[in-house]
Amino acid sequence: MKTEAKKFVTVSAESILENALRLDIEEQYELIDKLVENIDSVQKNIDAAWTEEIQRRVQDYKDNKIQTIPFDEVFESDKTPNDETKKAIKDARAENK
Questions:
Q1: What is the DSSP letter of 80?
Q2: Pick from 85, 64, 60, 63: which is nearest to 75 by CA?
Q3: End-to-end Cα, the chain, rounded Å
Q4: CA distance 35 to 23
Q5: What is the maximum alpha-carbon separation in the chain?
Q6: Cβ distance 55 to 47 under 8 Å?
Q7: Do the beta carbons of residue 47 and residue 40 sit within 8 Å?
Q8: Which of 37, 80, 94, 96 ranks highest by number of CB atoms within 10 Å?
Q9: How far apart are alpha carbons 86 and 4 in whole angstroms?
Q10: How does DSSP assign 15-30, residue by residue?
Q11: Using one digit for the tens of pLDDT, what is the confidence trace for 31-69?
Q12: 74: helix, coil or strand?
């Protein structure tokens, strides 16, 4: 019986999984290690890109290259997505006081 999660697995990935499950346990662990290694590598690239972006934004702020808007002004305007978001922010702020 297929689970809900498998609905999104491609035929290729499903075939790979079926083959991987036929491996002995040591080979499965080796495969897992290689997959995690790959994911970690990709994640490091993503983290590095975000770090670079954050540094750029902070520098733009320090160099007055961007216009800032006080939080309360944004919160009271229609620039927040919806009333539910405004309520969540207001509740979170109340909890932190």
A1: S
A2: 85
A3: 50
A4: 15
A5: 61
A6: no
A7: no
A8: 80
A9: 33
A10: HHHHHHHHS-HHHHHH
A11: 999 999 999 888 998 999 999 999 999 999 999 999 888
A12: helix
Q: Which two tokens stand for residue 19?
A: 């083959």
For 36, counting Cβ atoms within 10 Å of its Cβ (0-12 exposed, 13-18 middle, 19+ buried), the class is exposed
Exposure string over 48-73, b if 16+ CB within 10 A, otherwise e: eeeeeeeeeeeeeeeeeeeeeeeeee
Phi-psi region of 64 (alpha: psi -120 to 50; beta: other; left: phi over 0): left
Task: Give me the sign of the Cα torsion angle 65, 70, 83, 58.
Answer: positive
Residue 48 neighbours by CB under 8 Å, 6+ apart? none
